Amino acid sequence: MKHVSILVPKHNTILSSVVGPYKIFNSVNDFLIQTGKSKKPFFDINLVGIDYGTALYDGAFSIHCNATIHDIDKTDLIIISAVRPNCVAESIKTNHAFIPWIKQQREQHNTEVASLCLGAFILAETGLLDNKQCATHWAGIDLFKQRYPQIDVFPEKIVTDQDGIYSSGGAYSFLNLIVHLVHKYCGQEVAIYVSKLFEIDISRDNQNQFAIFKGQKEHADVLVQKAQIFIEENVTKKISVEQLSESLAVSQRHFIRRFKKATANTPLEYIQRVKIEAAKNSLESTQNTINEVMFSVGYSDTKAFRSLFKRYTGLTPMAYKNKYNRELVNY
What we know:
CATH architecture of the largest domain: 3-Layer(aba) Sandwich
Strand content: 5-15%
CATH topology of the largest domain: Rossmann fold
């Protein structure tokens, strides 16, 4: 039997990230017993909090934990549920008591630890992700990079798995991580069964197509903000980093260093992301050809544009248009 502790952060937990793993692991237990593969449940599932209960979504829901961290001496797997995106810093502060407990479990019992979506911020606070791969929600990537530069962030990843430390991409992609864990512990047959039962696409390996780039202006560097505004207001033009630094009367080296510190992107990456986001919007909402869209965001090399678009979205421009264009999609 594998003891699983699904952590329930106080106040800011995403409810689905608690219910999802709970239901899937229970379904595995039912399947193994019903098919005669086991006489008892494989997973001993516990909802573990700092306290026994917490209210969510302004009191609309509440979760009643069956244990607190003070009740659990040893667990085999810790799952850190997702927290709400608009209060990550508050969530870390409110749930700080989880951090030494997670570290203790890892150090004393070699417990495996998985973070779901923005639960990665709580996992990062433990230090267990240092110099390891990590995925999280695309909306939190830039803040995560700024806060934890020692962690190797993979924005496109759905699942990371390294030395018993796991993470998942954004929102419901946590389901792919849970199926991944089921496969690891119970084998392919059981993983395929739960993927079919819950209709989870286990072939998904990239979340870039879902990302929306809004720019990163939550910083106080006025010079960098001027550069960002210029880039965003001149999407149709070819913009060079040299041109930007000269217009702001700073050296190119100083500008690049300052820009990356403020936004977690180099100026070139920022230019590319702004242009690709504009291209995505055009592909979603117009009947313009791929070449017309390419020219409208300042590119003239079809091969280079296609390669750049796929790097940031995981799809070719045509595949993206076929999937998301409002005229083409049948809901």
